[in-house]
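[Help] Beginner question about ligand-bound structures

Sorry if this is basic. My supervisor gave me a protein sequence and a SMILES string for 2-amino-3-ketobutyric acid and asked me to "get the holo structure". I don't really know what that means in practice or what format the answer should be in. Inputs are pasted below exactly as I got them.
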Amino acid sequence: MQTVELTEPGVFEHRERDRPDPGPGEVLVRMAHVGICGSDVHYYEHGRIGDYVVEDPLILGHESAGEVAAVGDGVTGFEPGDEVTLEPGVPCGECARCRAGEYNLCPDVEFMATPPDHGAFAEYVAWDADFAYELPENVSTRAGALCEPLSVAIHATRRADVELGDSVLVSGAGPIGMLVGEAVRAAGAGSVLVADVVEAKLDRAAAYGATETVNAAEESLTDAVDEFTDGGGVDVVVEASGAAASISSTVDAVRRGGTVVCIGLSAEDEIPVETNEIVDKELDFKGSFRFRNTYDDAVSLLERGAVDVERIIDFEMPMSDLTAAFERAKEPDVVKGMVTIGE
Ligand SMILES: NC(=O)C1=CN([C@@H]2O[C@H](COP(=O)(O)OP(=O)(O)OC[C@H]3O[C@@H](n4cnc5c(N)ncnc54)[C@H](O)[C@@H]3O)[C@@H](O)[C@H]2O)C=CC1
Ligand SMILES: CC(=O)[C@H](N)C(=O)O
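Answer (accepted):
No worries, everyone starts somewhere. Holo just means with the ligand present. The predicted complex, written as structure tokens, is below.
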């Protein structure tokens, strides 16, 4: 089968590997669509993310969907021809965090496209059937692949305990922020203010249903939030940029007794946050890491048309042009690139 492997920063090699056989409890999936995530682009450009270093050729891609080609021993509920999306992290199932149900925090998770674990820019992937989810007829593999970033958004929305009518600031209008906007609205948020520093992203957010937008490079975020909430602060802030200035400003933007959820990962070692404000305003200040138990709900939201993921896609290119697709994905106004695998 064809794969595309990152051999050094900026270099993809097209390779031929043996098609895997599905092991016991696994499904073999013929890949159809794989989204390009910011972390894929980061590995492509730098060959590492923090302590995760690409030392051997690595297949990237963890936002995937395709068609079941074969099932391994003991697999029930799937048959060849079923369309599925794959949850990219398979936890150990035995550690304290897995036993507590917080399997997204498993330290021994096998996560696609995180060295040394391969991802999905390949014709076939054999994957644990417990982490495969059937797509209904009205959900395409193109949309199904985006259950991964949608899951990040659903998990953050749950961490934020969004309530009916809440006002929410989403800071960062990349794919994650865009889908957080969709997820909080599906959870009942009454109004969503979206902040970014790139006008084209804000235009996209506005077209995507943001109540208001603010360019944090040109206007004071505090003033914009004051205007948006008549001075009270938003009920919930979801930080989805990873920018230091944005993270620092979350505690000012939120109301007393409100909730801040940080998704964004920063390149900085230290970012100033007013901890006295967290105490004085009695804030819930939380992190949100990947997702757990979100895929069934992500598929259901897509099936019911309660969220729209396809609108974040800027372009679709074939795996044979993966270098060109990654170069395009690097452009600042691109939100999401999608790759087609096979014919
Ligand atoms: N916690 C988790 O499980 C996950 C975390 N992430 C992280 O979440 C963040 C968002 O992911 P993506 O949407 O893929 O990233 P992205 O880089 O595509 O989007 C970030 C957006 O933030 C904007 N931005 C930059 N400075 C800003 C500022 N001062 N104020 C407001 N917006 C600003 C950028 O213009 C961009 O549109 C990244 O830091 C990523 O590493 C991504 C996936 C999972
Ligand atoms: C941080 C990412 O982009 C990725 N989805 C991951 O969870 O590793």
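A couple of things worth pointing out: Residues 147-159 form the longest helix (13 residues). Residues 16 and 179 are 35 Å apart (CA to CA). Feel free to follow up in the thread.
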